[in-house]
Amino acid sequence: MSQSFAEQLNQLSPEILKTTPALLPPPGQQSNFENPIDKGHIFVVVGTIEICLTLIFYFARLYTRTFVIRILKWDDVTCAIGVIGSIVVYAGGIMGTTTGPFGKHQWDTTLWEITRQKGFILPSYFSTITIQPTLLFIKASFFLMYLHIFSPMRWLRISVYISLTLLICFYGATSIVQIYFTTPKFGETWLEALFSGSIVKSNILAVPNAAVGLGFDIVILVLPLIVVHQLQLTRARRISMTVIFLTGIL
Question: How far apart are CA 48 and CA 91, in angstroms?
Answer without folding.
Answer: 10
